[in-house]
Amino acid sequence: MVKKWYNSIKNYVSCRIYFMGKQAHASKGMIVMEKQKKLLIDEDVGKSLGSSDYFKEIVVASSEAIAVSDPGGRLIYVNPAHEKLFGRSLETSRSLGYWDYYSEKSVEKYHQEILPVIERGETWKGLIEVLDSSGKPFSLWQRIYATHNKKGEIQYCFTLMHEFRERKAEKNLRKAQQAQAIGTLAGGIAHEFNNILWIIMANAEIAAGNLPEGHGAGKNLQRVEKACARGADLVQQILSFSRQDEHRAKPLDIMPITKELLKFLRSSIPTTIEIRQNIKTQSAIIMANPSQMHQTLINLSANAVDAMGGNPGVLEISMTDVELDRDDMAPGEYIRLSVKDTGMGMEPEVMERVFEPFFTTKDVGEGRGMGLAVIHGIVENCEGSIEVHSEPGKGTTFHLFFPKIKNEKGTKSGSGSITLSPGRKKRILFVDDDKEIANTGKEMLEGYGFQVELKTCSEEALKTFREIPDRFDLVIADMVMPKMTGEELAEALLRIRPGIPVILCTGYDEETYKERARKIGIKAVLMKPVTGRGLVNAIMKALSEEI
């Protein structure tokens, strides 16, 4: 019977009804509206188009506010949800048109944006401002569709609306704004923290250089430098995680990311869960995006913790080199990153579906089923593969395979010795609004044989340079300074003396500025904190390019 009813109106209606036993029940909110809905609601309209009582019952029971209007915009029918939402009865609504419900701005939007869409037989959907019975404006999420006669003219307009969806949109907007604010805050903190790290690192390097060879304090200062380098890596990880536009894949050592994550997990998961690490590789450099790798490791670890359900257990993260020669992957060296738990495990039928979007075994409201689907996509984008092994009661293991790349640099940036010949002393204009950084940078560079003039104001630096443009061989400036940024200063200097080598230092992300800097003519953009050797390497390179 239901099948016969559906066939009779399939040209006008697309909906799903949940069946309970032998009888179809249209519960509130259980109608899933599909694209190009054609609703037959009003009794007169229903008779003219052959609608059945089943459909009317669905519409009346729907939690969606539904309205039907004629081609002129006058309302023919509204369901009870519509009456409740706007505070107007069906009898009152019959004498009104859409213009009585829309604000002046929305009326204009209807004619300019909505009407052309529904005239083409398409569905318009979006937020729109409406008025309640007292004339107070509020926003709704609406879908509007029109049926047409044989001549192609609009016959009826159907509007579905829901206040909850608008509130959800506002909530998502607030979340996006909060995430943006967090990213901005993280960037500001990173800049200041990197400045502090630079002061510590540079002074440790200067102090080490002043010690006699074999002095016991040398080891302590080396530890200080290593701690600063770890702090700088941590800042970069925070920036990568918070940055919304960061999707670039680049050579990435996932070993420090993994180790830092383990420290984070220890302070954030129950003490009844033991954390183990089993790293059996000396190098774990892959092509990946830092923030996506954070997301991958955090999601897998969170799933492992959830699987143990608060009971005592073990979370193990391991990393090893493997050689693969399989049909589904390019042969070669891979890093295998594994996340293992001693949780409840999975049945085979569940394990087969874990990477499907929206599939979840969690209760309603506890999971969206997108985490593993997203991870699967991230791994594939890295030209890798992901596998899962699980048995009920014996836990679960996820294996992630990433193609391994060689570290072409061989050594970390800034390593190696620098020898400056006598007679190669160069004059450098060093500009930074932080006096501690400026003084430390001056002392550090003078230790390598450079002559340094210091300025803590970009405008003063520009004035000094303008007076005698040939006085300096190179300029080093901080990117973020008041009144005139380092980038603006560089542009002004290059207008006065084209070709003057300029190096900019930033506490944010050097990749963000590199392309723009190249177009301006800036020789290099360095990420703080930079070691003295790293800075001198960049200076010598910039000077050699000038020559």
Main beta sheet: 5 strands, antiparallel
* Residue windows where pLDDT falls under 50 for at least 5 positions: 1-51, 363-370, 408-423
Termini, distance in Å? Answer: 89 Å
Task: Report mean pLDDT, rounded to a whole number.
Answer: 75
Count the E strands: 19
Report the structural category: alpha/beta
Query: Which radius of gyration do the C-alpha atoms yield?
Result: 33 Å
State which percent range the strand residues make up. 15-25%
Estimate percent helicity.
40-55%
CA-based shape: extended
* Tally of helical runs: 18
Report on this model:
The protein is an alpha/beta fold. About 45% of the residues lie in helices and about 20% in strands. The chain contains 18 helices and 19 strands. It has helices spanning about 1-10, 45-50, 55-60, 80-85, 90-95, 100, 105-120, 165-210, 215-240, 255-265, 290-305, 350, 370-380, 435-445, 460-465, 485-495, 510-520, 530-545; strands spanning about 20, 25, 65-70, 75-80, 125-130, 135-150, 155-160, 250-255, 275-280, 285-290, 315-325, 330-340, 385-390, 395-405, 425-430, 450-455, 475-480, 500-505, 525. Strands 4-3-7-6-5 form a five-stranded antiparallel sheet. It has a five-stranded mixed sheet with strand order 9-11-12-14-13. A five-stranded parallel sheet has the order 16-15-17-18-19, with helices on both faces. Helix 17 links the parallel strand 18 and strand 19. Helix 8 (about 165-210) packs across helix 14 (about 435-445) and helix 10 runs parallel beside helix 11 (about 290-305). The radius of gyration is 33 Å and the shape is extended. The N and C termini lie far apart (about 90 Å).
